[in-house]
DNA sequence: GAGTAAGCGAGACGGTACGTCGTGTCTTATC
DNA sequence: GATAAGACACGACGTACCGTCTCGCTTACTC
């Protein structure tokens, strides 16, 4: 994603140790001092790494953070299946899978669309409060607003895969007759996802379980009286 | 909003000329070279103003831009009523008022909620493409994501007043029986406003009149079959 | 000294109060924080005076300080005669007049040139240690090194009048046959005055009564054996 | 002399090129526009160097100038012996060595103290008129008056070595019976050096060969009649 | 198993912008 | 009309990072 320039460095000789240290430093700094005060020099110093090692492999601090956050997400995702296996057979299964990494695990399909959405959105609300997750995503989102190239990459690699899970679930609901057949799932999901995203990103309102429940209700049943 | 610090400067002595020049320079630079490359030194130089004059009255470049954009919006709003009077009596009235400053003018109330919303959202779509408007709002939104204090000010002074117009229109529709009486208008409006906002800000999808029409349909009638 | 510009201000309306306050502030600041950190703004603030009042009457902070110091010297000189009258008739007369302001009072003439010079130089040594005197003179001397116009004014108004006293005393000694008749007193005085000045100004050596006594000896009797 | 701060930079990596360019720029600016108008930014710009490169290695513009001038003196001193060899055997030898760098070359010892001193002081008078030499020394002297630390460094590194040459010559004269055995050479030299220094630095009188000849006469033979 | 070339840590470098301070000019209101 | 107050355009301050560069050092891969 960031290499393969003309005279690109030889990635087979790349130091795994440094890469990990850079990821860790970048994420930690964004959490601790915020994105604007996080500098490449600061990341290098904290990672115990030369600046050039960063410039060799990435093009900007946003690039570094995007990869670092991607890596964090993958780690988290890889961690969940194990939990799921370990926890198999016991009560509260959905609760469990909701809490962390539900995104890449798919949305539960109990046959009751409204219930499934409420569950997933409640889990998302909880997740949005984890600063280890919040600080970097806000930072990347902010950078993306003003830097279209990065913004599109952020959406493509992080956001869209999540949204696809909603598309799948909605399509399944459509087959089950719970959603109008003429509805485009990619648009439909925005009715509940975007309001939550906006409230979170722009502080336009409080984020609670009640709120997301309401969103699901309004979106499924419509604002107009039946 | 930005003065009244301890030992604050005497605002009666303030140079109106400089303030205007700073607003103009800030907006122009954000449009021309982008927010990150816009610097306080650059604004000062372009405005023909000393740096200290900026630091005396504002705390950061985001502060400057927020006020400048606010001022721009007010100017635009003040310009519309005149246009409306001049254009009174002719066809395409709504088109006209939709194009610019429809926000502060209130949402039309023809009795047909769906039609009114479609109209307003189409006008918004058009407006979002004006770079004089787009560049500063993206910049402020981006800054607000990562700087909560500014984010809240951005929302309170720029966003919320716009949203209130939707609240009013939805309440009127409720009274007319076109919206479920148990619906909270402040949440309801997010069903169509937030998706549009997200697509625009985060490049998560194309923005067209067809898209906003669809949003209105889904939101009013719901995703579930009737 | 610094006024009478083209459109010079009307000095009859000048505020005596402000002038005194400016002198006091300038001298105090030079003593307390040093000449380089003394600023016109600082002087104005401390004197409770507008900056323009300083710029109206003086051309630079060196100008202010020069006048302030001149004023201080005159005050000191005016104070001594009174002391002398009060102390008339008692022993230790020379001691007394040596301590302060001996400069403008003339050099004692007891008939013994060597003794008189030793006395006066010892008194000067003592005076050089008073910080109220040292700080401003160093400052003015320093400024004068690098600003010829001010340097010459400094010499003409402050230094040369002092040196003239030595010229007078040496001439008197010449008449008494204690100094070679072919000697130019204006040059001769430099043999003991300049070494002391240089040691003081440039920290090239310690300044003691023994040192000045030695200077007088070497200067009068010569370095070569008799 | 100016490095070895806490967390000092690695002087082995220092750019010789930049150092030379900074010396040249500093000296040139002091000559061209004067010391007070010489700024660190100006030096950096003229040297084609980042400001930080100056701040990394020096603490102030006076520091820079002191080192630059020291370097210039050493260069000059290194240049003279070659000239002397080249010029060996021809007339006007002393004239030659007097003109430049006589200081570090030692004072001639022809056996005639008066003649040797007259020669050296005349050469010094000539040298004091070279603006490449005058501007920086005045500047450093001025700074030293008001900044004791720098003043002492100026004296120790530049002035005192010169004075030591006089001490040596006077001691030799003492051994030859041309100077009173009880005379302290370090003080004695001030009788002719300090007057010249003061006239030069403070514009207290004209500087000519006749003047320095007179100083030598007065100092050696004394003011009192024999 | 020696030679070589790349990545690496470190950090100096030429720059740009920061936010602050002081300059000298100007304007306003007060006396 | 001089004054206290202080806003203003300007320019330098000393600092922080930028992105590039050069220096040994270590670590593979090649011969």
Automatic annotation (TrEMBL), chains A, B, C, D:
GO function terms (MF aspect): DNA-binding transcription factor activity; transcription cis-regulatory region binding
InterPro entries reported for this sequence: Homeodomain-like_sf, HTH-type_TetR-like_transc_reg, HTH_TetR, Tet_transcr_reg_TetR-rel_C_sf, TetR_C
Biased composition (Basic and acidic residues): 80-102
Record keywords: DNA-binding, Transcription, Transcription regulation
DNA-binding interval(s): 39-58
The name this protein goes by in its record: Transcriptional regulator, TetR family
Record domain HTH tetR-type: where: 16-76
Positions of region (Disordered): 77-110
Domain of life: Bacteria
UniProt lineage: Bacteria, Bacillati, Actinomycetota, Actinomycetes, Kitasatosporales
